[in-house]
Amino acid sequence: MAQKGVSYAKWGYIFSIPFVVTFLIFSLYPTLYTVVIGFTDLRGLGKTAFKFLSDPFENYKLILANVTFKQSLANTAIIWVMNFIPQITLALLLTAWFTTRRFRVKAQGAFKVLIYMPNIITAATIAILFNSLFGYPKGPVNDLLIRLGILDAPTNFHLQKWTSRGVVAFIQFWMWYGNSMIVLIAGVLGIDITLFEAAEIDGANGTQIFFRITLPRLKTIVLYVLVTSMIGGLQMFDIPRLYLLGGPDNATLTSSVFIYNQAFSGSYLYNRASAASMIVFLIIVVLSVALFFIMRDKDEAKARKRERQLKRRGGAV
Amino acid sequence: MKRTMRIMLMMLLVATLAVSLFAAGKSEEAKPARKVINLWSFTDEVPKMIEKYKALHPEFDYEVKTTIIATTDGAYQPALDQALAGGGDNAPDMYCAEAAFVLKYTQGDAAHFAAPYKDLGINVDAKLKEADIAPYTVDIGTNGSGDLVGLGYQATGGAFIYRRSIAKAVWGTDDPAFVTSKVGPGWDKFFAAAEDLARKGYPIISGDGDIWHAIEGSSPQGWIVDDKLFIDPTREAFLDIAKMMLEKGYTNDTQDWTDAWFADMKDAGARKAFGFFGPAWLINYVMAGNSGGDKPGEGTYGDWAVCEPPVGFFWGGTWVLANNKSPVKEAVGKIIEWITLDSSNTGLQYYWANGTLDGPGGTKDTVASGTVMQKSDGTLPFLGGQNMFDVFVPAGAFATGKNKTQYDETINIYWRDQVRNYSAGLKTKAQAIADFKRMVADNLALDV
Amino acid sequence: MKSIKASTITMKTVIYVVCIFLSLLSIFPFYVMVMNATRSTYQIQQSSVALLPGKSLLNNWKILNGKSFNPWVGFVNSMIISCGATVCAVYFSSLTAYALVAYTWRLRDAFFSFIMAVLMIPAQISGIGFYQFMYRIGWTNSLLPLILPSIAAPAMVFFMRQYLKATLSLDIVASARIDGSGEFRTFNQIILPIMKPAIATQAIFTFVASWNNLFIPLILLTRQEKYTMPIMVSLLRGDIYKTEYGSVYLGLTLTVLPLFVMYFILSKYIIAGVALGALKE
Questions:
Q1: I need a surface site. Which of B88, B301, B343, C187 has the fewest CB within 10 A?
Q2: Range of A164's domain?
Q3: Does C241 contact B285 at a Cβ distance shorter than 8 Å?
Q4: Measured between CB atoms, does A266 come within 8 Å of chain B?
Q5: How big is the A-C interface in CB pairs under 8 Å?
Q6: How many C-beta atoms lie closer than 10 Å to residue B62's C-beta?
Q7: B69 in helix, strand or coil?
Q8: Which residues pair with residue B100 across a beta bridge?
Q9: pLDDT at position B45, please?
Q10: Is residue B272 part of a domain?
Q11: Residue B67 maps to which CATH number?
């Protein structure tokens, strides 16, 4: 579709320059470094010289065959699902409650502030705290459960795989659901208020307003929350590492902790760590593309398709 | 389009120019003769020592720039490694390494950065003899070519620390010599003593971690033999020992460094634990404060004593090293000698042993020099007036440093994780060992 | 009418109960942290979670101050880095997002895909490459390498783009052009105000992340006068047997306080119940 008059397209380029330049200066070297090293034999401390491997994908093959790596991928997926479903449900629920004018929830501001709080604390502090909370044989949770009669003897929460995963998932959920909620609320605040007013005049109740007006217009923001939660979840690092160092028996070992261990747990296998990073990266890319595809704006997609067909048939460029 | 392209290219050029100017600029700085010593440490122990040194030697006019990065979050080593590899004016002249990773810096991948003590102007052999330094710290600090590159100032040879009142209740006496003969030498006697105690309702130790350090430290060989993972039989026995002790009630099933473990130091655990394995720092820095009091009679304070352990071991410690590319080696050598080898009454070790570094009444500690300990006063009210040096001097001789590798920190984490799983009955022994080997192979790329 | 009112009331009760529960759950660690800041190391080692305060606050403060660093300097450094990073990130991300939404240009979709790809690179390894690079060009002990990289913030660009796509009507831009406003001026004076909730939200997140960031500053800033607050708190942790936990918690509490303040300042933009509908103007 031709635009009349001056093309403003060049401003798109100009406004993007700061991002590109900054990226080139600060992130290009580290990123290239990561990609290239995955194909070499660089390992060990303080070495800078490396040779390219005769079989360039040797590191990749080793990583894909690595049982611990596969375990870490499974753990990451499990913990992420356990964390994300409650998180998005609760975030959407709270967003609905707080933005439905009919409910007029008082002290809304205070609630929002408090619910976001966990995001401010550093992961290290939380990990230590929860480690102590679930301590064995003496710890606050154990003591409480015994006093309530739910348990007869203290359980070692740190030794059971599923309780450890549950705790890690809970911590992630607890740290981030406020964050998701705030993002969604910010999105709702961008929706034109006249739409809500018109709907109320028409007699729509809270649920109808939320599902028919708020949610569709929130789609782009929800996509953001989904994608960033997925990326963040797949890169879960601080809590799994600091809580139980990936234990017990690798039950909470996530892919990022695995990569970190390859690079730093004594053998400095930088090349394998890089290869693993690239594999995880590819997985994230595939999942994100899938997510974008599922959530795409179907009307826009159809319009673009028609545009392309027109162009191909020799329409005006 | 063309104009925008040109603008973009220009900006890229500017950016590249800026970066290269930076790089160029840094390497062209003039270098006057340096009177600065760069010290890297992970606690403020060594920096405080150097302050004392400068107070004692006012003619020492070097400025000491200290970089302290704690070892928690694993941030110390990457930064230190980077600084050593980077070189230049900001590279460390003197740096510290903890027992958990010291081998990397004395014998392993980072050993080529360390300067032999003899290159620092120290008469190594003579000084070692004069100070009667515990052999294990020399072993750890000796590099592959046989040169001494690092020494510790603390002695961390371990002993068995037990409760006097419980000993009296079970055997009628709390005399250290008697208890020594009851719990050792050797593990068989230890378990017999454990049986005695368990019958009267006392676990002999708090958790499996307490006994692990003793077992780890006393095994003839380390985790790596001939470039392959090797599970020494004494260490492999730990699997069954841990399980047996748990089943027979010889422990309170705590994990070291958790709330419950500390609680056992003041009788707040499920049952009263009889003893702990550890070096002097465990007594002075951990147990004293956690005993529920600070005078004899309060909590368990004053109710403890030390005796020789069933097997010799060491746990922890800090080694001091020098950078072999340092331009101020002589100055660094003077400091290092004062810290690690000076056995006179104005050497660091004398102050450290008697707790007089910051004035009287400080915390006492065992030191690497046997000579110093012989002439120091190690009596502690916490131990009911016992002189801890009487036990720790021979304990230092038992410990060996020949069974350590640079991968120990990681391998021990995996090993203890598997042992805990096995002793809790969550997997079979064969499975535990197989999983352990796999973890080592997967994460450290070692042959198993 | 009555049944609607009754259901609203039950709904509201449910909401209040849930929100109060969640709020308590959220405050809990802060409460424990503050309590621990008043207890001694040994008390904390015995039981990490306590509901009642201890008596060691002054003692912990003395230990915190007795270390060789100056907490005030750390506060100033953290402030400079975090404010700088936030401003850079917010402004330039909005600019880049605007470029992605308001204009049609050939490389636009490819560029967006590129930004998303950058977002997906796992952070651990690029962290190593980053600080090795900084060491190589000698740019350590400066606060700039901690501020400037945030000009390129892929996650924020992504969010701003999604936000603009949902809320921006290109008619505004067209009418501004007719009024004779240059593109840059349009962005600064018309678009940015529209994005206030988005900006406030992302500003908080960036500020918090930058303030709490420990690993890279720890490795790049080795001189005492450049230390940030999280670095200072980590210095309180020595060997495992020498950590002064009471002071650590006090340090952590002090580190978190400025975040509270910043959050309260920015949160009114999120709490505001008024949507910023753009068409009406």
A1: B88
A2: 68-249+278-292
A3: yes
A4: yes
A5: 280
A6: 17
A7: coil
A8: none
A9: 86
A10: yes
A11: 3.40.190.10
pLDDT digits (tens, 9 = 90+) for C239-267: 666 677 888 888 888 888 888 888 878 77
The pLDDT assigned to A1 comes to 42
Q: B191 and B58 in one domain?
A: no
| Phi, psi at A52, each rounded to 5° | -75, 140
Angle subtended by helix axes B176-183 and B164-171, to nearest 10: 70
Low-confidence ranges of chain C (pLDDT < 70): 1-5, 68, 124-125, 128, 237-242, 269-281
* A136 reaches C (C-beta below 8 A): no
Q: Is residue A248 classed as helix, strand or coil in its secondary structure?
A: coil
Interface check B2 vs C, CB under 8 A: no
Query: Do B445 and A249 make contact, defined as CB atoms within 8 angstroms?
Result: no
Number of domains in chain B: 2
Nearest-Cα distance to chain A for C19, in Å, is 7
The answer to whether B106 and B319 have CB atoms below 8 angstroms apart is yes
Q: In degrees, to the nearest 5, what angle opens at C-alpha A59 toward C-alphas A54 and A64? A: 135
Residues C228/C147, Cβ–Cβ less than 8 Å: no
Residues recorded for chain A: 317
Report the range out of A88-102, A116-130, A147-161, A166-180 with the highest average pLDDT.
Answer: A166-180
Q: Could you give the C-alpha distances from C198 to A13, B403, C18, C187, C202, in angstroms and in order?
A: 23, 59, 27, 15, 6
Place of tokens 């904390």: C44
**Amino acid (one-letter) located at C217:** P
Mutate to test the interface with A, among C87, C125, C131 (most CBs of A within 10 A): C125
Contact C26 A115 (CB under 8 A): yes
A217 has a chain C CB within 8 A of its CB: yes
- Beta-bridge mates of residue B37: B64
Which residue's structure tokens are 């360390």? Answer: B114
Q: Do C46 and B70 touch (CB under 8 A)?
A: no
List of chain C residues whose C-beta atoms are within 8 Å of the C-beta of residue A113: 263-264, 267, 271
Give the structural domain span for B291: 159-313+380-444
Q: Count of domains in chain A? A: 1
The predicted model gives B229-237 an average pLDDT of 93
Q: Note whether B281 contacts C241, CB cutoff 8 Å.
A: yes
Residue B181: inside a domain, yes or no?
A: yes
CB contact under 8 A, C96 and A15: yes
Select from A77, A93, A238, A78 the least CA-distant residue to A178: A93
Query: What is the per-residue DSSP string for C21-38?
Result: HHHHHHHHHHHHHHHHHT
Please provide the average confidence, as pLDDT, over all residues in chain B.
86
Query: B323 falls in which pLDDT band (50, 70, 90)?
Result: very high
ipTM over 0.85: no
Closest CA to B412 of B260, B196, B235, B284: B235
